Amino acid sequence: MGIIAVRIDERLIHGQVANLWTTKLQASRIMVVDNEIIKSDIQKTALKLAKPAGVNLSILGTKKSSANILAGKYDSQKVFLVVKRPETLVEMIKNGVKFDTINVGNMSQKDDSQHLTQSINVTDADYDAFHEILDAGVKITAQMVPSDPIKDFASILKDYKK
């Protein structure tokens, strides 16, 4: 077992992640990996309040999460890993963590982002990170909720104009 799903979703733990995805995956733990949130007690408290009852929560930076995963700390659990940006996953890959598939959910619009789907907006830095992930042999899909069809994100990314 260990990591059963990886999702990029800027909102981290919210209705879709907490209810739909966690239930569908039957996750026993949500792992939020973010180097900024680990410095904010307010954001950590908000995530703790948002998690579903009966599901464990880890809020870690990239180094600690990578070390824990590589040490097999979560091998007996069903871990749903959630990050805000693809750059976080690039760092974890560079730390030696292996991913088979990554799902892209919500990436909100910013001044310097391009709109690719109804819920995915990508910056130049995101674009580069996605290509690093793809170059590492990881499949990337786009799927907002479990009932939506799974789309190949590499083909969606081709619409990005750099």
TrEMBL record:
The GO biological-process annotations, alphabetized, read as: phosphoenolpyruvate-dependent sugar phosphotransferase system
What does UniProt give as GO cellular component? cytoplasm
Which PROSITE patterns does the record cross-reference, listed alphabetically? Answer: PTS_EIIB_TYPE_4 (PS51101)
Q: Which GO terms describe its molecular function?
A: kinase activity; protein-N(PI)-phosphohistidine-sugar phosphotransferase activity
Q: Which InterPro entries match?
A: PTS_IIB_sorbose-sp, PTS_IIB_sorbose-sp_sf
Keywords carried by this UniProt record? Cytoplasm, Kinase, Phosphotransferase system, Sugar transport, Transferase, Transport
Give the subcellular location: Cytoplasm
Enumerate the spans annotated as PTS EIIB type-4 domain: 1-162
Which domain of life, per UniProt?
Bacteria
Matches recorded under Pfam families: PTSIIB_sorb
What is the name attached to this protein's record? Answer: PTS mannose transporter subunit IIAB
The scientific name of the source species is: Companilactobacillus crustorum
